Amino acid sequence: MRWFVRGDLDGFFGLALDNLVQLLLIDALCRFVIGMSDELLYGSVLPGAAASLLLGNLYYAWQAHDLARRTGRTDVCALPYGINTVSLFGHVFLIMLPAKLIAASAGHPDPARVAWQAGLVACLGSGVIELVFAGVAEKVRKATPRAALLSTLSGIALGFISLGFLFRTYAHPVVGLTTLGIVLLVYFGRVRFRGGLPGGLVAVAIGTALCWITGIAPGPVAPAYTGIHLPVPVLGDLIAGLTGGQVLPYLSVILPMGLFNVVGSLQNIESAEAAGDSYPTAPSLTVNGLGSVVAALFGSCFPTTIYIGHPAWKAMGARAGYSILNGVFATGICVTGTLAYISWAVPVDAGMAIVLWIGVVITAQAFQATPRAHAPAVVLGILPGVGAWGALLVKNTLRVAGYGSPDGPALSAEILPKFAAGDTWIHGAFALEQGFIFSATVLAAMTVGIIERQFRTAAVWALIGAGLAGVGLMHGYTFTPGDTAMKLGPATEWAAGYAIVALILFVAPWVTEEGEGH
């Protein structure tokens, strides 16, 4: 099999556009949500992302070429690889933003740097988890109901991706609705534009033009950092994050998201095998984990993943070369600072319909790929993620009202009865926000067990919930001047609640009988 064929160009445009959207999101979120300086973003974060993207893309291209050589085939397609969309949002909103707000409320002179260090720790943790669990990922997947795995991802996708970008779509409706219509037409209508133009490229091109016409573009540019910035190790900041209390408070996010990266990559390897390309699991997952570790070591906060979509790229005729081209392209725009000019010319609004579509697909898959009877479990698994996003909105609203500002009141338990008086039980929302990925998995898996009348299995999941709350990985929280943060130590009330549910489920076979459930 040749290293480059005509179909690699088609595959490259699709995969590179996907990666470009992720990089534009990193650029926008790091600057405007985290408040990173141009020096930090363009001098460390993006070069670190380039190192991780180049490593993985080159390996998976070699892996595909080696498989073709060993089997004598010419139709082998490399595994697609890039930055994990769900982890990107999770790290920004669940780890980096809280770390920044806590640092700011404590009077730290550079809260954005603290947020970056927390992101580095999270990225390193994700990579280490992928490496550790590479050999047992299949067992983890089989032990957890599919409804629990997919619905937990869906909660993040629906809240932190879909709803956020839906708000932005209707804030800029000319750009947002136009590009959304194109994306829905191509991806849900299963059509393509004449001449073979990728639908995503058409949406971004038209969206960019509309951004300029309506005045959304041009965005800010950072010309001072558009020279060559090669990846440089950031061990000092990584050590500062590891020793600065950035591990335990965010372990309830780092651990489950690392496991989801493992399982998601495993499912995509299985998808490739179903399309005719059988890759060994352990080395594929190991390199994926190494990509995240390299990212953290060189300054990026964002883990990498084996992407969904291998069958689609293979159907386009992509082989090994599209992966090489993608790695070179991503590296080029990251280390040269070219992304600054791209983000100046192409606002996130031009590509947000693609990200919104990704969130919708992830949410829909939770229902489509699970047994119909498990739909209630999927809904329960989605709710904690949406609730956590709602809690974030409430806290942002309070900050706009002055809470946590130098001249305003501190965020404290005094707000709880005020919300309760309006029948908004924000105490429950703040509790649900802490470790919501764990609670989503437990609720969905427990519900699957109940639906299947496997009450003891359901009880075990309730006990897992009690254990997680008992060690402080779920629900316990404390107030800081401008935020809520995980409270280390047992969340006793919630642990007791889960334990009582486990007891009820254990005795259910003796105190119930089959019926209509009235």
Q: How would you portray this structure in words?
A:
The structure is a single chain. This protein is mostly helical and 518 residues long. The protein has 2 domains: 265 residues, no CATH class; 134 residues, no CATH class. The chain contains 21 helices and 4 strands. The protein starts with 5 loop residues before the first helix and ends in a 7-residue tail after the last helix.
Roughly how many Å is the radius of gyration?
23 Å
Whole-number count of domains = 2
Q: Give a quick account of the main beta sheet: strands, pairing sense, barrel closure.
A: 2 strands, antiparallel
Order of helices and strands: HHEHHHHHHHHHEHHHHHHHHHEEH
Tell how many strands the DSSP assignment holds. Answer: 4
Structural class: mainly alpha
Binned, the helix content reads over 70%
Please tell me what the overall shape is: globular
Regions with pLDDT < 50 over 5+ consecutive residues? none
Strand content: under 5%
N- to C-terminal distance = 63 Å
Strand order of the largest sheet: 1-2
Seen as an oligomer or otherwise, the chain set is single chain
What value does the average pLDDT take?
Answer: 87
> Counting H and I runs of at least 4 residues, what is the number of helices?
21
Quickly list its features:
two-stranded antiparallel ribbon; 71% helix; mainly alpha; globular; 518 residues; 4 strands; 21 helices; single chain; 2 domains
In short:
This protein is mainly alpha-helical and 518 residues long.
